[in-house]
Amino acid sequence: MFALAIHGGAGALPRMQYTHGREQAYRQGLALALSAGQRVLAGDGCALDAVEAAVTVLEDDALFNAAHGAVLTLDGTVELDAAIMDGERLRAGAVASVRYVRNPVQLARRVLEDGRHVFLVGDGAERFAEDAGMTHVTNGYFITPYRLQQLAALKTHSHSVAALDEPPFGTVGAVARDRAGRLAAATSTGGTAGKLAGRVGDSPVIGAGTYADNESCAVSTTGHGEWFLRTVQAYDIAARMRYGGATLAEAVGASIEQRLPRLGASGGLIAIDHRGEIVMRYNTPAMFRASVRSGEAASIHID
Amino acid sequence: MFALAIHGGAGALPRMQYTHGREQAYRQGLALALSAGQRVLAGDGCALDAVEAAVTVLEDDALFNAAHGAVLTLDGTVELDAAIMDGERLRAGAVASVRYVRNPVQLARRVLEDGRHVFLVGDGAERFAEDAGMTHVTNGYFITPYRLQQLAALKTHSHSVAALDEPPFGTVGAVARDRAGRLAAATSTGGTAGKLAGRVGDSPVIGAGTYADNESCAVSTTGHGEWFLRTVQAYDIAARMRYGGATLAEAVGASIEQRLPRLGASGGLIAIDHRGEIVMRYNTPAMFRASVRSGEAASIHID
Fold first, then answer.
1. Which terminus of chain A has a smaller tally of CB atoms within 10 A, N or C?
2. Torsion (CA) A256, A257, A260, A264 in degrees, nearest 10
């Protein structure tokens, strides 16, 4: 048995209804990413390869806030964060404030495989990518006309994102359980629109935005990154299972529906446990998400 | 009642015995830092101010691996990481890969007070510091002859630190409980000697190297940063208390003496709970540490 879940961000519903075309594009983007990960798992590949494959597809899709199509900093540049974790041996790789690497999740994977360090940021991360022979792109490759408009609107509306026709949190992520029972998680993001240069959110932080441990669960979050850093969100789910004896659904429910709202924090997460149980929950009006288990049909939701 | 604990790193014992003079210098450095924090708490200051004051003194002391006197990257430069967290409101500030800010813990505090973001790295963190009017120094200010020798020795002995007359982990940190029952934690480090540029360890990562929550405990860690990132070390202590009903001593014991050795991870941590109970534990041969509680004498240990 294998299982896979992915997300494309959680947030407010658009003020205007999506056009049918736009809705279809989001659904198709999620379906393609899900298939990429599913193909790995169906071919007896490992969970780590599956989450990397799924997140790579979402990074390349301009509709989501990761790599190509990511949000802009206040300076008008793109700075990318990503992490990946192997629940089998607790290996992890994370990168932040990356500007010239086409697929940050692949760079995070290289950091994991290299093994010397877990977390590389900025120029040092770029140099590591160069030494590893990874594809180098210009920062302009990531920038879309839509994100330029978004930043202009943000600056006009004094940093309110309410007028924007999209969920404010478009982070992407994946969690998987492969046939051998191994868990893995990956997350990738451009962060928050109009962020200060150098800002790192929860996504690349092991324990906050990304976590995987075969003994408990794999988690990828999306939402108010600053709050998810302070609540150590992803590991909080694992710890409720490890130390509190909660099931995955109980752990996620208590965290997302009780603790976070009390703190005024919004967002969501996807999680999977060693039995392949999938939980996808959010306290925002919507979360883009999709999942599949071996022998079952895929499900895709954008509400 | 108030209580304060600080550390100056955990690691192997030196191959050669310390000279009496050097031992006295370490003790004096710890005593000065402890006094700085104690003064704040005795004057009814808050835990957050106390940990910032104590860590600032350790950052300025060339004997410890933080700010002035920090270890060098493989490139021969200094890159600094720090974090601070307020257990009262779960506010946090963290910075990494900082090269020109005299006291990184003070920059982390500014990030916390600013409130827009939690975590800033590299050039963006420097720009934030500049905008905040903080003291700018050259990278050379941090570099001591001793660290130049250490790096040369590292390169000669193919990355082994065994020949070096000092504990390999010289990270500094503080945890405090003030008279109002508020907890806080702060950690500052130059990371690991000979690290790749851009490498971020556990110290500035909320949940890994630094964590504080009035409802459980405040923690500052020192040790094998890559492992402490993967195990989400600081929050693991808090979670064992929150969800497992462990006391502080039980939580720290289970984590440092059982889980970490099984994983092959070494290091230590200092922690404090809401009653002002202090626990300082390590699975290395030594940890530099000191603590004091209101109405009691200070204790200082370098073994």
1. C
2. 140
